[in-house]
Write a structure and sequence with these properties.
The complex is a heterotetramer of chains A (483), B (220), C (669) and D (318). Chain A has a domain of 199 residues. Helix content of chain A is 79%, strand content 0%. In chain A, helix 12 packs antiparallel against helix 13. Chain A is globular and about 65 Å long. In chain D, helix 2 packs antiparallel against helix 9, helix 4 runs antiparallel to helix 5 and helix 7 packs antiparallel against helix 11. The model of chain D has no long low-confidence stretch (mean pLDDT 87). The chains are: A mainly alpha (483), B mainly alpha (220), C mainly alpha (669), D mainly alpha (318). At the A-B interface, helix 5, helix 6 and helix 8 of A face helix 5, helix 6 and helix 7 of B. Strand 3 of chain C pairs parallel with strand 1 of chain D, so a sheet runs across the interface.
Chain lengths: 483, 220, 669, 318
């Protein structure tokens, strides 16, 4: 047992919460923004050190295993890049008067609280704690979504809040049911909520209770994932909140919720008599994919459009994990990582675009590659990536997913391919009008930092061509663990 | 002795389901508030009984919260809000009472069927309790989706949450129950405050779809 | 260094050029530098591929890229070498042409980075030896060409063309993806070697073939998946159009051949009927569309569809013969198809170069605004004429040689045992003959209306000859059209290793045949000698000229045209492209396009002009694509109401989902 | 020595078709005139016309391009080569394997291609009319012809005319429905290709009904001579073709004695005369049809060709 390793996990949690406390009292947004970046960077380092250092022992509340380390590193990385983006974004909001310094203080503090909530959800070994952490992260994002105090923003936040609350309730009921199922086998008390203990004894649980629990958990956490028909909060929350929050929502929070679903899916998969969780996830995934694909066509708000694209991709990922098996799980993991990176990069671009053009209406934005080549081409690459075109990373995951699905369940691959194609058509339709054509709207030069966006895109491109072997081994291992 | 314990717990849980039906049946707002207070009261009794039976003193806290916060504070606050905002006193329903009640029956039956699949070897107390809790949860959700007033929707949500507490306390030895009930109380407080702050007079849903489109930058 | 490595190095050079072009694309000197570099790389790759095709053997390279547990496999065998020759030759010609033509490009930074990338991607597709690399490069090829299609993005038509193109390309890729999924099996054997080794049950084989028709067919432009092609190919700058039409469609055919002939175990004979029928329909419909077109580049694009149909007929024949164990006939049919692939890449590139020259000189692609260019652009028009003659399958040019081989293959059909094929093959032969005749008509129109007659606009009257690079590219291609036409034996022998590998047999060796004739099956049966035909025609024509000029008269006088005594001074009274096609439209149009003519004749005494309106429908679009687009629009509209629900209704959705899932649990066995 | 003899025979064939073709045209005209109870011009009149035209100066339209001037020679050469490759009095000539039936058709197609282009070169509307109608006719005639070729080739196992002729003279070929259909189809195509009545009228100069003549309206002098000559050659070619395929009797085998060649020549002349006479008879007994009826006529030929091919399988398996 190494003290440093123990510290790493604690640091991942401690750093954000300490930073949040600090940010809550510090005035001056410039310094806060930098502090936000610094704290996020340190958290990222702490997360990375989890790789190199020895794992801490499995605790009653916290633990690190092969699965969640992937999520943690992704989470802290995107958290860091988004904080960089946010630093270059949020100043503009202050200038235009959409936010006040007080708002910014609140914003930065909440940003770190949210990071804390997500990290906690990821490292928690206790299903109750995980529930609490997910809800914490949700509630902070609710506050962030409503930060502009406009009618639309408040409405979006309210919708998010109400739907989220119901989701919270359902997830809690599921958690209670898991406990009930575990109690006869494990005994009363905390042990019956510790995930590592649960998974060892799951064969002895009552399958019917587990089934019921999974339904509630899938719907409860699925609301956070944004699976159709539980998705309703997602597009509005993305569209009306500050863009960094949209990026974090799409890139991270959805993953965290999905992680929770995955944990319980693993539990169910180990139980011999329980229903297979796969079909449920597959059907919800496909519904989300196809539904979001069609919804993309009539979008007029650029951020809302990409929010629907997130629903689509969450559907794909859920589908992949529902399919299971080493190839599909690998594809799901890869897809999740790639989607987080790409979607947040897209939101970075979209944020700046919306600031320059002063609108989020797609019809008002044209010919971006002409007026703002960096942003325009960045968006093109991002959308091309998100649409699943090579040589970018999502292509690889879609390749693996579609081909392995077709070899195993040809009839499932047809709707999958159909949904992909429908979504592709819509994304591309909008892309051609946004990025190309006769320029429209303000051509003012952008004061933007392109580094986070292009860093993400470079990673996505690199992953599409070359995955480092250690990473692959890791993913394969995790894919096997996921079953 | 076991039989008696079981019967009493059963009685409370069944009572909660019954009160849920009464909630569904009510069509006047003030009466609804009163019945909800009753709902919370029954829950408090049930939780207290569990605390006694399980010898888990911390559950008394939960019972106290249920009693103090939900049976007293919230109904009073909602009373005020109704008066302040001049909310229509009538419960506006989406479908008629009859169909709603029928649907409620169906839901109770569904939760029974689902729960009965649980192997009888499992703790019978938990099994029955859970079936009732599930019914209460589903009835609460049904109420949320069949009522138009914000206040009655909030009440639906709270009755749903009561079902959760019922389940949580019924689960013997479950940790974090108190914390959860506190957290939920905070959540409900937020919702109530939200209703008040945002002056959501009548309903969560704005009827004027055109106005909504305007807000969302869509359809223009 | 192995040949495969050489090819990959050339690709690397191309990709590096593309990267360099990103920051420097706007500089004036970038244009010659980029095209020069592309030219050099493709020439080296071409030489390497040619050498390898002659030397034979296979060479492989595995790079640690792509699918991590597999790596990126690249393999250069006879088939790949042949297609590399086609790709790189087309690429080199386009680069050479671009050296001149590219100077007038208004947005070079939108062309230069993607041009070498496109070339590199096509090379990579041909080299790829595992499903992932193949599809990656395939789709990257689409992406690069899409960027080129929308290089002139301010025109809405172009972005729309690019959109339809990329959606169709993606559809094709997904179809291929499914096919590879089937071939790889649940274990994920994505290497081509593994697929080759695997046995595929008949159902799988049929399914894979169907998916390949969808995937590769949509890229190649097989009817009814062709709709994107006449939109996208003309939208790109002309040298890119040449690449897309002349080369990229060939890469699609490569994909089809690679999978169906190489990776897949033999599909049953009836599946070849599908290929044959589609090929025949594609050939005829493609060229009919071309005939009705008045946009020169679109005409060429539609003609590409026709040629793809011809190639697919050859491939279908090869499939049929192979399924019946007639190796020699399969080799003949496959050779015909591959030969036509090469030929089409030559003359279609040439024709697009010519169209580009016309476009550059007159700034219009509308043939009915052109005319008389033969006087202003004599060299271009000569090269274009050679291309027209070649694509019309006139002897002694190359187009005829390959069509002749295809006909010879068709004539082997009586020996097929399956009755369906026996009857179908001659019918498809009839379609092929029809399309060849229509192609001749089409290119009479293309050349006649564009280059002959009197100029129909000021721009056409003021046209000027193009630069030397462009001319050089066109003349090299024209020369090769002739060379391949009079010496087809060499090409056939070069293709022999390919057919040997794919269908296990080859055509008889041609280089030893007396007088360099070609014999499809054996000496003493049918034969054709392009060289002698060429010589005979040249000699007899020269003889006639010499004799007449020597012994009869050589007097010549210029005068006004006769025209039965009356020539309308306005050049607009000439036969236009539309009027030229009118008789054929009357014959075929009612069926193929639901063409309706409506004459509005004012009553006597009314001074209004009479008016003739023609309505034509693209039936494929009307019957297939418009309904799909409509259905998607309908579904999108209907589902879109879900964006505007109230929170209570959204909650109802959650509630219904919950109840639904609980019901599922309740009835779960 | 054998080679020289071979070349001589080959050369003889080339010279023969060249020499005979105007005569055939004259003969047909003469017979037609006789049938109409006219005396008609001498059978040698076409030669005189050609010589006259050759000696005249060319009047070239201002707008005519080099293509316009080259085309007559190209057409002539292509047609001549094609005609020389059809066996007339002997089969298995030295260069007869240079091109098979498909190539011969394609050579004629080349000639038509350039003629149609030449029609469009000057930029008059009549040229356009002629070209567009000509290509319309060709788009139907060529596939019909190729389908007929299929029928023949499937019977003979080759598209090489010499081999077809040998095969058709074998007794086992017998009478077949397919061959009959092919013959009718071939005659219809031949009529269309040679611009004869009822498809076109070689003697008309009524503008709106012209097809072939409209294309060559701008030609004069030696150019016109070449085109007329090519037209005669084409007529000869088709009659030789029909004769060689459907009446291969008397045709000399390869490397036979001079006597056989003589018999072959005589038989050939007889066949030509018969063919010419039948053509004239046919032409005088029928009226020209409207241009837009022509597709129906040729469509029928196309159907006959296809039917012939398909019936082959039914009548006897090969």
């Amino acid at each position: 047992m190494s003290l440093a390793a123990l510290d790493a996990v604690t640091l991942v949690l401690l750093l954000p919460i300490a930073a949040a406390a600090l940010l809550a009292v510090l005035p001056g947004y410039r310094f806060s923004a930098r502090l936000n970046v610094g704290a996020s960077l340190l958290t990222l380092f702490a997360a990375l050190s989890l790789f190199v250092s020895e794992r801490p022992p499995v605790g009653q509340f916290l633990f690190v295993d092969d699965l969640n380390i992937v999520f943690i590193v992704l989470n802290t990385f995107v958290g860091f890049t988004t904080s960089v983006f946010s630093a270059s974004y949020i100043g503009h909001e202050l200038e235009t008067g959409r936010l006040t310094p007080a708002h910014l203080r609140f914003y930065h503090a909440m940003y770190q609280v949210m990071m804390f909530g997500m990290n906690l959800a990821l490292v928690s070994n206790n299903i109750g704690l995980m529930w609490v952490a997910v809800e914490l992260a949700t509630l902070t994002t609710v506050l962030m979504v409503g930060i502009y105090r406009t009618h639309e923003a408040l409405e979006a936040a309210w919708k998010y809040f109400i739907l989220g609350s119901v989701g919270i309730a359902l997830a809690l009921f599921g958690t209670i049911l898991v406990y009930m199922a575990a109690r006869p086998a494990i005994g009363e008390g905390l042990d019956a909520m510790i995930w590592t203990v649960l998974i060892e004894h799951v064969a002895a649980f009552d399958p019917a209770l587990l089934n019921l629990a999974f339904v509630f958990l899938l719907l409860g956490y699925g609301t956070k994932v944004g699976l159709a028909p539980l998705h309703a909060w997602l597009p509005d929350a993305h569209a009306e909140g500050p863009t960094p929050i949209s990026a974090v929502l799409s890139g991270l929070l959805l993953n965290v919720a999905l992680y929770a679903v995955l944990r319980f899916k693993m539990l169910l998969a180990q139980s011999p008599d329980a229903i297979a969780p796969g079909p449920l996830m597959i059907s919800m995934g496909l519904t989300s994919l196809i539904f979001a694909g069609f919804m993309l066509y009539r979008r007029r708000d650029i951020k809302r459009m990409f929010a629907y694209s997130s629903i689509e991709h969450m559907g794909i990922i859920t589908f992949a994990f529902g399919m299971g098996g080493p190839l599909a799980n690998f594809a799901g993991l890869l897809h999740m990582v790639m989607h987080s990176l790409t979607k947040s990069a897209i939101f970075y671009a979209v944020g700046h675009i919306a600031q320059i053009k002063g609108t989020q209406k797609i019809a008002e934005i044209r010919g971006l590659t002409e007026t703002h080549p960096w942003l325009g081409w960045g968006l093109v690459i991002g959308v091309v990536a998100i649409a699943g075109l090579p040589p970018l990373g999502i292509f690889m995951s879609e390749f693996l997913l579609v081909s392995s699905t077709f070899a195993r369940q040809p009839l499932l691959a047809i709707p999958l391919v159909f949904g992909l194609l429908v979504a592709f058509g819509a994304l591309l339709l909008r892309l051609s009008s946004i990025a190309f054509g006769e320029p429209k709207g303000s051509a003012a030069p952008a004061e933007a930092s392109y580094v986070p966006m292009y860093a993400h895109l470079a990673l996505v491109l690199g992953a599409g061509l070359y995955l480092p072997p250690p990473l692959v081994v890791w993913f394969q291992h995790v894919a096997r663990v996921l079953g | 002795m076991d039989g008696l314990i079981f019967d009493i717990a059963h009685l409370f849980a069944g009572g909660l389901v019954l009160v849920s039906f009464m909630l569904l049946y009510q069509d006047r707002l003030y009466a609804l508030l009163n019945i909800f207070a009753l709902h919370a009261f029954v829950l408090a009794l049930s939780v207290a009984w569990q605390a006694l039976v399980q010898a888990a003193p911390h559950l008394y806290v939960t019972a106290a919260i249920a009693l103090g916060f939900k049976a007293i504070v919230i109904p009073v606050a909602l009373h005020r809000i109704i008066q302040r905002l001049g909310i229509h006193r009538q419960v506006e329903t989406v479908v008629g009472m009859g169909p709603t009640m029928l649907a409620g029956m169906g839901l109770v039956a569904l939760s029974m069927v689902v729960m009965l699949r649980v192997t009888p070897e499992a703790d019978p107390l938990a099994r029955e309790d859970l079936a009732f809790a599930l019914s209460v949860v589903l009835l609460g959700l049904l109420m949320m989706v069949t009522r138009r007033n914000a206040v009655s929707q909030v009440i639906g949500f709270m009755s749903l949450e009561n079902g959760l507490i019922l389940a949580a306390t019924g689960a013997k030895g479950m940790p974090l129950v108190v914390e959860i009930s506190v957290a939920f109380s905070v959540l409900i407080a937020f919702i109530v405050i939200g209703i008040f702050l945002f002056r959501i007079r009548e309903r969560f849903d704005t009827v004027d779809i055109g106005a909504l489109d305007d807000f969302r930058g869509e359809r223009k | 260094m192995t040949p495969a490595a050489t090819s990959l190095l050339c690709v690397a050079a191309l990709l590096a050029t593309a990267l360099v072009a990103v920051p420097f694309g706007r500089r004036a000197r970038a244009t010659p530098a980029i095209y020069g570099a592309s030219l050099a790389a493709t020439v080296v790759a071409l030489a390497g591929a040619l050498l390898h095709l002659v030397a034979g053997g296979t060479s492989e390279v595995v790079l640690p890229l792509g699918l991590p547990w597999l790596g990126a496999h690249f393999r250069l065998d006879a088939l790949a070498a042949f297609f590399l020759v086609v790709v790189n030759f087309g690429g080199a010609a386009a680069s050479l042409y671009g050296l001149g033509y590219g100077r007038h490009e208004e947005a070079p930074h939108r062309v230069l980075p993607f041009f070498p990338a496109f070339l590199g991607a096509m090379n990579l597709v041909v080299l790829a030896d595992d499903a992932f690399s193949f599809l990656l490069c395939w789709e990257f090829m689409s992406l690069a060409s899409w960027a080129l299609v929308i290089a002139h993005h301010r025109a809405t038509d172009n972005t729309r063309a690019g959109y339809i193109y990329l959606v169709m390309a993606s559809f094709g890729t997904l179809a291929l993806l499914l096919a590879f999924g089937l071939l790889a099996g649940p274990q994920g054997g994505y290497g081509f070697a593994a697929m080759r080794a695997a046995e595929h049950p008949p159902l799988v084989a049929a399914l894979v073939l169907g998916l390949l028709i969808l995937g590769a067919g949509s890229k190649a432009g097989l009817v009814p998946l062709h709709v994107w092609l006449p939109l996208a190919h003309p939208a790109a700058p002309s040298h890119v159009s040449a690449l897309m039409s002349g080369v990229m469609t060939k890469v699609a055919i490569y994909g089809f051949v690679r999978v169906v002939f190489d990776l897949l175990s033999e599909p049953s004979w009836w599946s070849s009927m599908v290929v044959l029928a589609l090929g025949g329909a594609t050939a005829v419909l493609g060229i009919l569309h071309a005939l009705m077109e008045r946009d020169l580049k679109r005409l060429l694009a539609y003609s590409t569809i026709e040629n793809i149909g011809v190639v697919f007929v050859g491939l279908g024949l090869a499939l049929a013969f192979r399924a019946e164990g007639m190796g020699w006939a399969a080799a003949l049919a496959l050779t015909a198809a591959l030969f036509h692939v090469l030929n089409h890449s030559l003359f279609k590139s040439l024709l697009f170069f010519g169209a580009g020259a016309v476009l550059g000189a007159t700034a219009t692609r509308d043939m009915d605004r052109l005319g008389g260019l033969i006087h202003r652009m004599p060299r271009t028009s000569f090269a274009f004429l050679v291309g027209c003659a070649a694509i019309s399958a006139l002897p002694p040019l190359n187009g005829f040689a390959s069509e002749w081989l295809a006909f010879q293959a068709i004539l082997q059909s009586p020996q097929l045992s399956a009755w369906g094929l026996k009857i179908m093959v001659p019918a498809v032969g009839g379609l092929l003959a029809l399309s060849a005749a229509l192609a001749a008509a089409c290119f009479v129109k293309a050349f006649g209306v564009t280059f002959l007659g009197r100029p129909r606009s000021d721009a056409a009257a003021a046209a000027h000859e193009v630069d030397r690079f462009s001319q050089a590219a066109m003349f090299i291609l024209a020369g090769l059209c002739l060379a391949a036409g009079i010496l087809p034996g060499f090409v056939i022998d070069a293709v022999a290793p390919v057919t040997q590998a794919l269908v296990g047999d080859r055509m008889p060796r041609q280089t030893g045949v007396e007088w360099l004739s070609i014999v499809p099956i054996a000496e003493g049966r049918s034969s054709y000698n392009g060289l002698l035909v060429f010589l005979f025609i040249t000699i007899s024509a020269s003889l006639a000229v010499v004799v007449i000029h020597r012994f009869a008269s050589r007097a010549l006088r210029r005068g006004p045209a006769w025209g039965c005594g009356f020539v309308e001074p306005s050049p607009m009274t000439q036969y236009s492209g539309v009027s030229f096609a009118q008789p054929i439209r009357r014959v075929f149009g009612t069926l193929a396009f639901r063409a309706r003519e409506h004459v509005e004749m004012p009553p006597p005494g009314d001074m209004r002009p009479a008016r003739l309106t023609v309505q034509m429908h693209d039936l494929v679009w009307d019957a297939l694509y418009a309904p799909i687009a409509g259905a998607i629009g309908f579904a999108a509209d209907r589902l879109n109401t879900l964006q505007f629900l109230t929170i209570r209704r959204y909650l109802s959705l959650v509630f219904l989902a919950l109840v639904g899932l609980l019901l599922v649990l309740a009835i779960w066995p | 020595m054998a080679l020289i003899l071979d070349l001589l025979v080959q050369g003889g064939q080339m010279a023969l078709v060249l020499a005979l073709s105007p005569l055939l045209t004259g003969f047909v005209r003469k017979v037609k005139a006789r049938l109409l109870r006219r005396r008609g011009p001498s059978m040698l009149q076409p030669y005189r016309d050609l010589l006259r035209l050759l000696r005249k100066e060319v009047v070239l339209a201002d707008n005519a391009s080099w293509l316009f001037r080259v085309t007559p020679y190209l057409i002539f050469a292509a047609t001549w080569v094609a005609a020389a490759l059809v066996p007339t009095f002997a089969i298995g000539l030295k260069f007869s394997w240079t091109a098979d039936l498909i190539a011969i058709i394609a050579l004629l197609g080349s000639a038509r291609f350039f003629l149609a282009l030449a029609g469009m070169d000057v930029g008059t509307s009549f040229g356009g009319i002629g070209s567009s109608r000509e290509v319309m006719i060709a788009t139907l005639a060529e596939p019909a012809m190729l389908l007929i070729v299929f029928t023949l080739a499937l019977v003979a196992g080759s598209t090489q005319l010499s081999m077809v002729a040998v095969m058709m003279s074998q007794p086992e070929v017998g009478l077949r429905v397919s061959l009959g259909l092919a013959l009718i189809g071939l005659i219809m195509v031949a009529i269309a290709e040679n611009a004869r009545i009822p498809v076109d009228n070689p003697t008309t100069h009524l503008e709106l009904t012209m097809v072939h003549e409209a294309m060559v309206l701008e030609y004069s002098g030696r150019h016109l001579a070449m085109i007329e000559f090519a037209a005669s050659l084409k007529l000869l070619l088709y009659i030789s073709l029909i004769a060689c395929v459907f009446a291969p009797w008397g045709i000399a085998a390869p490397d036979s004695a001079p006597l056989a060649y003589a018999i072959g020549t005589a038989a050939y002349l007889g066949k030509l005369a018969l063919g010419g006479a039948l053509l004239a008879l046919f032409e005088t007994s029928i009226a020209k049809m409207r241009v837009f009826r022509v597709p129906d006529f040729l469509g029928a030929a196309l159907m006959l060709g296809l039917l012939g091919t398909l019936l082959l399988f039914v009548s006897r398996s090969l």
